[in-house]
Amino acid sequence: MFTRHFASLKGDTVKAIFLVCLAVGVVGVSYGSLAMAYGFPLWVPLSLSTLVLAGASEFMFISIVASGGNPLAAALAGLLVNARHIPFGVTVRELVGQRAASFLGCHIMNDESVVFGLSQPTAEQRKAAYWLCGLGVALLWPAGVLVGAAVGKLLPAPETIGLDAVFPAILLALVLPALKKRTTLIRASSGAVLSLAAVPFAPVGLPVLLSLLGLLTRKK
User: Fold this and answer.
1) How many whole angstroms separate alpha carbon 175 and alpha carbon 167?
2) How many CA atoms lie within 13 Å of 178's alpha carbon, on the beta-carbon side?
3) Which of 1, 32, 82, 162 supports an S-S bond with 145, CB 3.0-4.6 Å?
4) CA triple 131-137-140, angle to 5 deg
5) What is the pLDDT of residues 31-74, one digit of tens each?
6) pTM
7) How many degrees, rounded to 5, is the angle at CA 25 between CA 178 and CA 159?
8) C-alpha span between 176 and 180 (Å, rounded)
9) In Å, what is the CA distance from 75 to each residue of 10, 65, 71?
10) Would residue 69 be called left, alpha or beta, if left means φ above 0 and alpha means ψ between -120 and 50 degrees?
11) Secondary structure (3-state) at 201
């Protein structure tokens, strides 16, 4: 069934999906190497990359825990980052499949699969692009973690080659376009200021949650 759907995609779309999934794998290398450098056993990042399958949440989780934060606070911060999946789920409800397949279809829902799925002109191509990208990410993200784990063992300090900066740089690139809106900029800046101000006083992981208060800021 999937082979027939995938055949409906144009070559340029398949190539773009492959390159994006490959980039996700490269970020996975960064994640895996950092997890090793932080002292986590391999099963932790590998399990997260397979079962959670949400890069931002996973990075945040290991960073908070490695800094001495409470795992529960780390998990809540991860849920906060992934709150965008709620509207995603509503938007792609026709693409995730039905019955048992829908469980896997929901699991592979991420920024990349949603973007490719919604950008196609026909219903068949939308579903094909969503699944191809989602499955590609689901395979290459853990694969990148395994490669990164090996690199992390060879390089106790991944920052020496900049692996620690890969994910923050990608997040910044994704966020910058949204900051063109004045209201978004004000609320994001307010949340960042609140979070930074709380760092010396609040337990590790809590400042990220406090940044939500920035949403209460109103444009003047």
Assistant:
1) 12
2) 10
3) 32
4) 135
5) 888 888 888 999 999 999 999 988 888 888 888 888 787 888 88
6) 0.76
7) 80
8) 7
9) 39, 10, 6
10) beta
11) coil
